[in-house]
Specification:
Order of helices and strands: EHEHHEEEEEH
Number of helices: 4
Radius of gyration: 15 Å
Largest sheet: 7 strands, antiparallel
Strand order of the largest sheet: 1-2-7-6-5-4-3
Number of strands: 7
Shape: globular
Distance between the termini: 15 Å
Structural class: alpha+beta
Helix content: 25-40%
Length: about 160
């Protein structure tokens, strides 16, 4: 199954002042995932090409002093992949980072559909702070629209 794009219903509820939000959804069968388990499958590993793009992004933004993920000394339980864990509740994990150019949140949600089926959603919510943040968002958006569905599809890989 391929992830499908949906409209994120309430960006303000996830991040006050948000100017951008998207949501990709995938239906699974027979996995019985928790939200944290789904987040680990989506964000805890990445296809090689995504890893290379992330390395390139980190090199490009280094001179600007932008954050590149969780602090290197952050304990493993406080992050999933490079993303700091903000909160978790039944069926929902919130990750994200606040930086000088923008703040973002990633929501990974799992909804039980019955009969062994689950809906797994990955949403991104962004609040920009300045022209640099708006420019950065515009530059990465074409990549984001390819990367997020590819990352979400990893839910199906054991």
């Amino acid at each position: 199954m391929t992830p499908t794009a949906q409209t994120f219903p309430d960006p303000e509820g996830a991040l006050a002042g948000a100017q951008f939000a998207d949501r990709y959804v995938l239906t699974t069968e027979g996995l019985a995932l928790t939200a944290i388990g789904a987040a680990e499958r989506v964000l805890g590993r990445s296809p090689r090409w995504v890893g290379r793009l992330t390395q390139l992004r980190n090199l490009v933004v280094m001179p600007f002093g932008l954050k590149t993920g969780a602090k290197p000394d952050a304990p493993p339980e406080s992050r999933i992949g490079i993303f700091p864990l903000i909160s978790q509740a039944h069926g929902r994990v919130v990750l994200g980072l606040d930086d000088r150019h923008l703040d973002f949140r990633i929501l990974v949600e799992v909804n039980d559909l019955g009969a062994g089926r689950q809906e797994v959603a990955a949403s991104t919510i962004v609040k920009t702070h300045n022209l640099f943040g708006r420019t950065y968002l515009a530059i990465i958006m074409p990549f984001h629209r390819i990367i997020v569905p590819a990352m979400l599809a990893q839910v199906l890989i054991k």
